[in-house]
Design goal:
The chain has 357 residues and is an alpha/beta fold. The protein folds into 2 domains: 192 residues, Glycogen Phosphorylase B (Rossmann fold); 146 residues, Rossmann fold, CATH 3.40.50.2000. Helix content is 41%, strand content 15%. It has 14 helices and 13 strands. Strands 3-2-1-4-5-6-7 form a 7-stranded parallel β-sheet. The chain has a 6-stranded parallel β-sheet with strand order 10-9-8-11-12-13, sandwiched between helices. Strand 8, helix 7 and strand 9 form a beta-alpha-beta unit. The longest helix is centred in the first third of the chain and has 24 residues. It is globular, with a radius of gyration of 21 Å. The two termini are 15 Å apart.
Amino acid sequence: MRLRICLIASSRFPIAEPFAGGLEAHTHALASSLAARGHHVTIFAAPGSDPDLHVRTLDVAEYAPSAGARRDVAAPPDSWMREHHAYLALLMDLQRGGACDFDIIHNNTLHHLPIAMASAIEVPMITTLHTPPTPWLESAMRLNGHASTFVAVSHATAADWSETVDPIVVHNGVDIERWAAGPGGGGAVWFGRLVPEKAPHLAIDAARLAGIPIALAGPLHDPDYYVAEIAPRLGDDVRYAGHLAGADLAGLIGRSSVAIVTPRWEEPYGLVAAEAMACGTPVAAFARGGLVEVVTPSSGRLSAPDDLPALAAAIREAVLLPRDGVRRHAQTALSLSAMVDGYERVYRDLTRPVLAA
């Protein structure tokens, strides 16, 4: 059963490499895989998204508030208003004619409007929960949560949301071919968004305690944090490799002996850990959120959160794990194919009554 799928993505960051974060990488992988299985996928996303995908650009035109609106001391930033208008315009279009164009709407954003307006649209909607609870999403769910089906990316994330909704769990997955096996033998690697909640500075400190050099890769989303915490730690044993994409990033990970993952929040899933393991690179990580479901004794080591000596010990143990066993764990438990199978089951459960009518 081939479906016409509306996939709502970020209006802030393009769905293109190098990805701004795991949400954009997840959207690209899901859309590509669904299209490869014969579904017609239309992505509504930010300008600059991958032209190989069937993308309709979200309207992110400049918002110019009136003089009266500017005088409101509680007015949100213009960037917030642009995002609000982008999703509002799309959802109003879907309200008017979405049933003619789509069988299912997949909301893959962190915005509240798709949830809040789901009951006004005559197309079944699922929403993937990629974060712990936030007030704006929780509020929309309590008012209109019955109109959307919710999917969590891990059992940990599902538990976090359980006071408000009862999500289905579909674990994230990685493209085993894209994240090819590498030889290892190098130092440690940390990759992702360089922001305080991901805490790459703790990865640097733990790597130094373990006596292993480390390379960092990812976008500088918080320049102040980089200047305060990362730049002073750079040296002969610590380097910033830049915001890498595709084969360059996979090559760096595959040449590394261990990937370090240091969230200071309850990591909803831990996509970077899965990507590293697909390359055969074992993981040393803080035991937070979904990481306890992703990292197993055959693929890495977990330590108590924020405990640097314990993380250093985990690094020293993880580098000794056989790389073929690490990759085998990714192939059997963390594959993109299994993730897409899960979403197809949810889509078909929601669309079967409509298509049978």
